[in-house]
């Protein structure tokens, strides 16, 4: 008869081999080790041999004939059913702790805490979800900051012209200031500033609505020349030369109104902020490249240029401030047409790449 020590030695060797294999997997960072399915499958496969070893061990510990057949059967049933339960509890630990962390993170989000971050658990399936969750939290945190900034930004931009207008009108009403052409011009300028801000908000709202206009064939060079002519005075005042690298026979099938609004907003953005001397429009297959040779923007600002109310220059001045809706409108209009627009560093300057699905 094989002794009890033999089975114990076999069990010990199996455990040592398993530990060594797991250590090797961890040292060399083999992806199988990090998979939850691999760990659970290993536990399931181990439950059978472990149950058999325990049965043989119980037979060695309790001499034949000293227990009834019913007690023997009960022992076997307990071992066969108990081993998977114990291993199942161990497997549940692989799931319970990540889910507990995830539950706490959700509870923090319910309290508007956007600083929570999920830690890596070393389990591939959970870590993939946690990474996406952390990216989402980062996005929500950024959106929350923009939302909070909206009130202060909008109130500042609206308050400045309103305060000026009320002050001027009150002084004239009380007879402190005479009604002169200069003061009327100031009031008109502030009223125009208010109107522009309201127009930006209205344009953004409309840009989020589906455009029912039908696509048409557009002679792109002629289209862009007309746009440049519309801005000829502003371009001349800023000392900016407009260049077109578009073939005479270049035709795209697109929504004219959407394309016009996108290029108009890009041109206005260049005129206001770029400090460029050249602006270039180039056409390739299903793409429009709109670039300048100006000061560009910091690399960390590129992913946020099309966000609502985002401004590279945090100054609140009339010259460089504004509500930061121009490029947000561009993205909304592009996406409403099934297009995509991105911004890349131009070296120097800034380039916008509009992909049109013709």
UniProtKB/TrEMBL annotation:
GO MF annotation, one: phosphorelay sensor kinase activity
Example of a GO biological process term: cellular response to phosphate starvation
SUPFAM superfamilies with a match to the protein in the record: ATPase domain of HSP90 chaperone/DNA topoisomerase II/histidine kinase, Homodimeric domain of signal transducing histidine kinase
UniProt domain Histidine kinase: residue ranges: 153-358
SMART domains cross-referenced by the UniProt entry: HATPase_c (SM00387), HisKA (SM00388)
Protein keywords: Kinase, Membrane, Phosphoprotein, Transferase, Transmembrane, Transmembrane helix, Two-component regulatory system
Protein's UniProt name: histidine kinase
Organism: Ktedonobacter racemifer DSM 44963
EC number per UniProt: 2.7.13.3
